UniProtKB/TrEMBL annotation:
SMART domains: HTH_XRE (SM00530). This is Helix-turn-helix transcriptional regulator. Keywords: DNA-binding. The keyword DNA-binding applies. It comes from Flavobacterium cheonhonense. Residues 14-67 form the HTH cro/C1-type domain.
Length: 131
């Protein structure tokens, strides 16, 4: 039994990336200098001209390779591994709590002392200029 891989639908990938970027077809069309209808046609096409793909990728802030290799499964995996929902269905971002290895209060005091020292030096210079 031979399995063939289904070719990537480049237009659909463009559409999904554009939607993830919260960009409307009109905005993408304006960015690359075509009409909204042209973007619609491109998004319904399985293949896209390499030059046009490069322009679209640039407008979307990705590379052409990202568009070619875009996978919704990968995006869902990233979302599932990044977010967790509590019992109320509210998404909670899974992040590690940042624990600095220094006392922030000590840093504030240190900065205040440096600022105070700089002001003292400035006053001494002003007094010298005044004389």
């Amino acid at each position: 039994m031979e399995t063939t891989t289904k070719p990537k639908h480049i237009g659909r990938n463009i559409s999904r990336i554009r939607e993830l970027r919260q960009m409307k077809q009109e905005a993408l069309a304006q960015a690359i200098g075509v009409s909204q209808q042209t973007i619609s046609t491109i998004e319904n096409s399985e293949t896209v001209d390499e030059d046009k793909l490069q322009q679209i990728a640039e407008a979307l802030g990705v590379t052409a390779e990202v568009i070619k290799n875009f996978s919704e499964d990968a995006v869902l995996n990233i979302i599932n591994n990044t977010f967790n929902t509590n019992d109320n269905g509210i998404a909670i971002l899974k992040t590690e709590i940042y624990q600095p290895n220094f006392n922030p209060i000590d840093k504030i005091v240190e900065l205040y002392e440096r600022l105070l020292e700089a002001e003292k030096e400035k006053n001494v210079l002003l007094e010298q200029l005044k004389k």
